[in-house]
Amino acid sequence: MGRKTRARSSYRATARSGTLKPLSRRRAGEPAWLTVSQLARRWQLGRTTIYKIFDKGTLPVWKVGTHLFRIALADVLRFEARNRRYRKLSR
């Protein structure tokens, strides 16, 4: 009669929270790149703000295809170490 929507929604929440693991605890099989959305969630900023950071040239970014961008985890960690504002948000 009724569907189990709780199981489905809790699964989504678990899947989403899995992308926000601290970078220092990254496993060997996990990717070494972040998407713009993942970085925005990590720093609790909007995607447009992330694009503005790219435009300034303060954070190296790799363009994949015509519309996709990827950011190396090593560059994110280096950027966070230099900028206290972003380091606080990532914890």
**H and E order:** HEHHEEHH
Tell me what portion of residues adopts beta-strand conformation.
5-15%
Net shape: globular
Q: How many helices in DSSP terms? A: 5
Indicate the mean pLDDT.
75
Q: Distance between the terminal alpha carbons, to the nearest Å?
A: 43 Å
Low-confidence stretches: 3-21
Task: For the largest sheet, list the strands in their spatial order.
Answer: 1-3-2
Radius of gyration: 16 Å
Secondary structure layout:
Layout: H1 5-18, E1 33-34, H2 36-43, H3 47-56, E2 62-64, E3 68-72, H4 73-82, H5 84-89
Antiparallel strand pairs: 1-3, 2-3
Note the main attributes of this structure:
91 residues, mainly alpha, three-stranded antiparallel β-sheet
Summarize the structure.
The protein is mostly helical and 91 residues long. The protein contains 5 helices and 3 strands, in the order αβααββαα.
Write a structural description.
The radius of gyration is 16 Å and the shape is globular. Strands 1-3-2 form a three-stranded antiparallel sheet. It is built from five helices and three strands; from the N terminus they run αβααββαα. Strand 2 and strand 3 form a beta hairpin. By secondary structure, it is mainly alpha-helical. It has helices spanning 5-18, 36-43, 47-56, 73-82, 84-89, and strands at residues 33-34, 62-64, 68-72. Residues 3-21 have low confidence and may be disordered.
